[in-house]
Amino acid sequence: MKKNYITAQKTALWNFLSENAKKPLSIAEIAGGCNICKSTVYRLIKGLVDAGLVSKILRKNAFVYQLSSCVECLDHLHLKCATCGKVIHLSHAQTNILKKEILEKYEFDPQDESAMLYGKCNECLHEQEEI
Q1: In a domain, 122, yes or no
Q2: Domain residues for 93?
């Protein structure tokens, strides 16, 4: 049986991902933020993805990585910025209000409470206005 050691690099990677949990990150961003070479990040990330702790997401023809949904991420809707990748978690109360309104107004019962709605976050909307 292979032993799984906790190394300084694994700790640095986990800490960086935790500090940036709401932002999908490229391997280059992770490597730069952790001060770890890309090949090591690829190896360590693969283990975290295989363990289900990190999600591998295809975005704009490249993969980005983000901490996987926790138990608290189940059963509520998410808003995801299509520009920067920021994820906003709606509360269970907000999710229930939206589901009730959709059911009443459209006679449609959404079944996936962990669904993702795509749009632009406040910061990206303001950046766009400044251009």
Answers
A1: yes
A2: 71-130
- Beta strands (DSSP E) in the chain are 54-59, 62-67, 78-81, 87-89, 116-119
User: Please, what's the b/e burial string for 56-71 (b: 16 or more CB within 10 A of its CB; e: otherwise)?
Assistant: eeeeeeeebbbbeeee
- How many CA atoms lie within 13 Å of 16's alpha carbon, on the beta-carbon side? 23
User: Closest by alpha carbon to 73, among 18, 114, 116?
Assistant: 114
How many Cβ atoms are within 10 Å of 48's Cβ, its own excluded? 19
Q: Is residue 3 part of a domain?
A: no
Burial class (CB in 10 A: 0-12, 13-18, 19+), 3: exposed
**Nearest CA to 22 among 78, 94, 96?**
78
| Domain tally, the chain | 2
Give residue-wise pLDDT tens across range 6-42.
Answer: 788 988 998 898 888 878 889 999 999 999 999 999 9
Q: Which of 47, 67, 87 is the last residue of a domain?
A: 67
| Residues 65, 30 contacting (CB under 8 angstroms) | yes
Q: Has this prediction a pTM greater than 0.85?
A: no
